[in-house]
Specification:
Strand content: 15-25%
Number of helices: 9
Mean pLDDT: 79
Strand order of the largest sheet: 1-3-2
Largest sheet: 3 strands, antiparallel
Distance between the termini: 50 Å
Length: 259
Amino acid sequence: MTEQQQDESKLERVIRKIKRCLALSKSSNENEAATAMRQAQALMREYRLTELDVRLSDVDEVQSEKSRAHRRPTWDRHLSAIVARVFSCRPLSYRHWCGTSGRMVERALFVGVTPAPQIAMYAYEALLAKLTQARLDYVSRVRSGKSRSTYSPETAGDHFAIAWVSAVHGKIHELVPRGEEDLAIEQHSKGSGLVAVESRDNALIEQYLAGKEIGKPRKARAVELDMAAQIAGMLAGQLVEINPGLANGGEAQRQLASA
């Protein structure tokens, strides 16, 4: 382990200790709460950390294992954007040199407060696998003449996929882990607590990304979509069902299954 790695590991332990102290500072026991807050403040002074530094340590970024040699298609980016919105993450495309394939590749990337980006990536990749297969099946039908289109099979497949994402949009909300605490917030504060949490998380994400170089998204071109492909995509998307699944480590996630 290098000296830099040792320093980073030590800092991580310090931040974890500060977080525990800050959690204890909310104790109903006034003496315990005061002692914990003093310990947290002392550690922050010693290591020149602010409360923002501690909160930012919760922000993480997760890359998709799936990569493309070319720019991710519109329907792929739409899917990641919708999933990111549900889980209060920031969706990005990450282009880099891949040593394994020996070429430049592009991947989906989610940035958010842990464990949101991990759950968002799980949902995105599960849906992407289903969408990719559904699109391939439709392209094959167009190519064989079973489905008609005025566009090429590949383009018709893109239009099908965009409509598929739109149809699944509402269902993705069912992927959100919903614990008793979340339900209590909604019932007693009419959602204002959830809005506050989302605003705080968004502020942390923006702060985390502030020092990173992020390219501006390209302006989408207005295109006329194939109506037949759209209808087929909407119908296929409506057949996607979401079933409860067991989560690893006790975290609530969902498994997707086609009807």
